[in-house]
């Protein structure tokens, strides 16, 4: 989203206290505030997607409700708080459980738990048979997928607080708080847990590492520095999850930079002037990003140099890229799933799912892909 479009959206908000701007294109009238999404070009496919199964878990609304994978099941949640278990191999519905929560964050899993969050700060935990284990509450709406590790459920709320809850009882063990600027981008960022550390990005381009055991600071660094003369111009928030690999932690800021750092100490390795709000993924030697305009970029994770860039999906609200096999897969606002060549970024495959936006990133599953649409359809796909 360019700055001109941001300025128009900002008029919908009263700039008092801590105000937010949503970069997702679901706001009424947003589609006409700038250039139209780029039209899709014809191409000669060199690969393809085949549907194994699909099933409905209920509409997602405006939030990217990503499903969770376990050894033999897929768990999805709807905007109305209905949790569904699907058989991983066939997509058959095993059970559905209704809650009284308006869901704003997708399903996290670990330690035998399934955890999701709601708009009033509710955090609900179920076992894999659909029995509710506990409920808890954090300081504001839960927008990021809860993460579970070492007996702790880590939940990030919309007010930039991070809480560590007991996986067995839901009792709060610790909370991390920080102040935020007057104007921030509404973010569905969660946290990343790695080797006993919790990594999270914040407003003003801050990237922090915390101890999982007690939430205390380990280090903090700047991925991006706010610049410009107005509050809108100075927004430089990390609005997506960082990604960690081989003791290298990387993050990207909206209206800012992309940078990689030593995970243990926070020392900078390299930075690039690339802006994005969907996050990053790493596979092998490559780091992938969708920039703010929708271009898909492959970088060398060690040096940060550009390997290739595909500009065919501009303004299509491109999802976080995911590498599977020889393809780099992204979704878009019209429900298309695109496969780009891992080698040179050329368009190689395309399939249209249910026609609703693909907000959550595709995931790898059983040599293929798992994708949930805004319309609530979950697809299991193979790549041929």
How would you describe the overall organization of this protein?
With 384 residues, this protein is mainly β. Helices cover 2% and strands 44% of the residues. The chain contains one helix and 34 strands. The protein has one helix spanning 3-10; strands at 19-22, 49-56, 68-69, 73-77, 83-87, 93-97, 103-110, 113-118, 122-127, 132-137, 147-149, 152-156, 162-166, 172-176, 183-186, 192-194, 197-201, 206-211, 217-222, 243-245, 248-252, 258-262, 268-272, 280-283, 286-290, 296-300, 306-310, 322-324, 327-331, 336-341, 347-352, 363-365, 368-372, 377-383. The strands form nine sheets. The chain has a four-stranded antiparallel β-sheet with strand order 2-34-33-32, with no helix packed on it. The longest helix is centred in the N-terminal third of the chain and has 8 residues, at 3-10. The model is unreliable at 1-18 and 23-32 (pLDDT under 50).
Structure at a glance:
With 384 residues, this protein is mainly β. The chain has 1 helix and 34 strands. It has one helix at 3-10; strands at 19-22, 49-56, 68-69, 73-77, 83-87, 93-97, 103-110, 113-118, 122-127, 132-137, 147-149, 152-156, 162-166, 172-176, 183-186, 192-194, 197-201, 206-211, 217-222, 243-245, 248-252, 258-262, 268-272, 280-283, 286-290, 296-300, 306-310, 322-324, 327-331, 336-341, 347-352, 363-365, 368-372, 377-383.
């Amino acid at each position: 989203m360019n700055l001109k479009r941001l300025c128009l959206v900002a008029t919908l908000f009263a700039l008092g206290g801590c105000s937010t701007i949503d970069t997702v294109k679901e706001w009424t009238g947003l589609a006409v505030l700038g250039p139209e999404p780029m039209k899709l070009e014809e191409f000669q496919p060199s690969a393809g997607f085949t549907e194994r199964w699909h099933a409905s878990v209920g509409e997602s609304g405006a939030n990217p409700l990503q499903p969770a994978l376990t050894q033999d099941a897929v768990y999805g949640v709807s905007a109305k708080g209905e949790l569904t278990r699907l058989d991983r191999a066939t997509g058959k519905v095993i059970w559905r459980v209704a809650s009284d929560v308006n869901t704003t964050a997708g399903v996290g899993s670990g330690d035998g738990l399934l955890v999701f969050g709601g708009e009033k700060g509710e955090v609900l935990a179920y076992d894999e048979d659909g029995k509710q284990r506990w409920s808890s509450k954090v300081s504001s709406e839960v927008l990021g997928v809860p993460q579970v590790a070492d007996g702790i459920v880590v939940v990030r709320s919309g007010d930039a607080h991070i809480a560590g809850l007991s996986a067995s009882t839901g009792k709060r063990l610790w909370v991390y708080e920080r102040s935020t600027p007057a104007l921030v981008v509404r973010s569905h960022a969660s946290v990343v847990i790695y080797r006993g550390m919790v990594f999270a990005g914040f407003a003003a381009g801050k990237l922090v590492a915390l101890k999982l055991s007690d939430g205390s600071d380990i280090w903090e660094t700047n991925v991006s520095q706010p610049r410009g003369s107005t509050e809108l111009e100075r927004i430089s928030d990390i609005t997506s999850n960082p990604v960690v690999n081989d003791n290298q932690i990387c993050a990207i800021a909206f209206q800012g930079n992309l940078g990689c750092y030593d995970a243990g100490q926070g020392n900078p390795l390299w930075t690039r002037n690339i802006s994005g709000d969907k996050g990053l993924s790493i596979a092998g030697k490559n780091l992938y990003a969708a920039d703010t305009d929708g271009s898909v970029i492959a970088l060398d994770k060690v040096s940060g140099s550009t390997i290739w860039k595909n500009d065919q999906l501009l303004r299509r609200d491109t999802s976080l890229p995911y590498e599977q096999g020889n393809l780099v897969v992204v979704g878009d606002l019209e429900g298309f799933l695109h496969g780009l060549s891992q080698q040179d970024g050329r368009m190689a495959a395309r399939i249209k799912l249910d026609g609703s936006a693909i907000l959550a990133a595709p995931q790898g599953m059983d040599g293929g892909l798992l994708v949930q649409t805004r319309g609530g359809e979950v697809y299991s796909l193979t790549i041929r």
